[in-house]
Amino acid sequence: MDRLLTVQPKEVVIRFEPGQRCSGFVELKNVMYTMPVAFRVHPLQQKKYTVRPSCGIISPLGKASVEITMQPQTELPEFFPHSDDQFLVQSVVVPGGKETETVSLEWFSARKKQVFEDSGLKVMFTGGAILTKLVADGSVDEIREVLEKDEGTVNSCDEQGRSLLHMAVANRRPDLVQLLIEFKVDMETRNKKGQTALHVAAAKGEGLITELLLANGAKVGAKDLSSWQALHFAAAGGHVDVLRLVVLKGAEEVNSVVSDGRSALHMAVEGGHRDCLKVLLVAGTNVDARADDGDTPLHKAAARGEGSMVRLLMQKGATKDIRNKHGKTSYDLAVDTGDSALLDMLRLGDGLRRAARRGDLRSLQRCLEQGAAINGKDQHGWTALHRAAFKGWLEIVKALLDKGADLDSRDDEGYSILHCATESGHMELVELLLKKGVDVNARSKRGVTPLQIAASLHYSGIVRLLQVGGAAKENISIISSTKSETFRHYEMPPLPAKKISRRLQGVKKPPALSVQYGRTAVA
Question: Which superfamily does CATH assign the domain made up of 5-125 to?
Answer without folding.
Answer: Immunoglobulins (2.60.40.10)
